[in-house]
Amino acid sequence: MLESRPLYHQVAERIHALIRSGTLRAGDKVPSVRRLSRQQGVSISTVLQAYLRLEDGGIIEARPQSGYYVRPPRTALPEPQASRPPQRALAVDVNRLAEAVLAAAQDPKVVSFGAACPSGELFPAERLRRALAARARREPGVLTRYSLPPGAEPLRRAVARRALDWGCRFDHRNLITTNGAMEAINLCLRAVTRPGDLVALESPTFFGFLQVLETLGLRALEIPTHPRSGLSLEALQLALAEHPVKAVLAMPTVSNPLGATMPDAAKKRLVEMLAARGVPLIEDNLYGDLHFAAAPPRAAKSFDREGGVMLLSSFTKTLAPGLRVGWIEAGRWREALCMLKFAASAGQSGVEELAVADLLESGGYDRFLRGLRRRFESHLAAARAAIAASFPQGTRVSGPSGGFILWVELPRGADSVALFERCLARGVSIAPGPMFSASGRYRNCLRLGVGRTWTPQVEDALRTVGRLAQQSRS
Q1: What is the pTM of this model?
Q2: CA distances from 453 to 102, 112, 394 (A)
Q3: How far is Cα 329 from Cα 281, in angstroms, rounded to an integer?
Q4: Could you give the CA distance from residue 405 to residue 294 in angstroms, rounded to a whole number?
Q5: What CA–CA distance (Å, rounded) separates 308 from 4?
Q6: What is the pLDDT averaged over residues 369-394?
Q7: Which CATH number among 3.40.50.2300, 3.30.70.20, 3.40.640.10, 3.40.50.880 corresponds to the domain 124-364?
Q8: Per-residue pLDDT tens digits for 236-267
């Protein structure tokens, strides 16, 4: 009988029962040692033995200076293979498909996995409202004057301090604030390219990059990319030797859609390779704060010694999509970016920038991020388990290093565009693979954003995608 077992076995079994029932889910923090000791009326050493037993069984895991967490279940799903895009430059046309997916994401009747946007309830909306109101009260003049480039100094200082975590030492005076990351990417490309120029990027890549290239009249050169280690430097080196590449646009940390993060040595080599040829790197670090490692990975910018890397990000994935607050460290193109920024939008919302600066400086932002990362780890684990149970045999799924996006490779012959249409008829949306390539590749692939609050209804919607994918092959 259970009660004849050692006391720490009994405590471990009670926690394990909560995990099996779903009360504690993958990524959730289990009670602290002291709290469980009080709750169960047992000694701290008994709780430590119980947790060690659960940790040995692969049920929970310890995180330094944080506590114990439910370990995500391992699934047998293999990862997608490294991409093999065509070795030629291509004009870009992804707008039509992207518009359909984004329109579905705005429909409240649709369970959307197509858009990379977390659920609104995951964001600290009340804290944001208080911060905005407090700034407007303290500085009423901020609402009645322009906030011109380079943007609010307190925000630029706060970003420069955060950049130390990524190995970067910024002078805040060199930072420029923007209306989110998309404006930052537009400005960077306009500073270093002209219509008809060639831009190298990861494959698959974020469809928004392709939309920007399309609107600017630029051509895309897709570079093979591994789902864990990111951009193939060997393939990029060959491309630079054979093509007149004017810029490289990449996400070296937690790429979209693969979730790959390049090792530090590869980031360093990437920067040096491009510096030797005078080719600028536009580094999008949008998901950098959502990396799952205990310490933030270094940015490629941290290896830049000649000002050849433009690093950018925003707070749309970590604070609120409605706050269009982003920034650029533009390297040697700082003056050009300032002029382009003024011509594009004249400036920013000063009260929003100051409110974000207050949140960054309060310390609450980092606490919020730790909880958000745990939620996303739990969502990814649950989604991978649902995919393993319901998608066609032979399906491959990425194991992202952070964020809340999965790249799914269905067996050959699957058509994700047709699957999108069938899913939409059932009130579910996905992002078909061809959106993420200028060449129309990845027809048998799809991207799933699992940032929304994970509920039985959301899980059932994902299983519906799997069942429809199964039916299309029967």
Answers
A1: 0.82
A2: 19, 12, 28
A3: 12
A4: 19
A5: 67
A6: 91
A7: 3.40.640.10
A8: 999 999 999 999 999 999 999 999 999 999 99
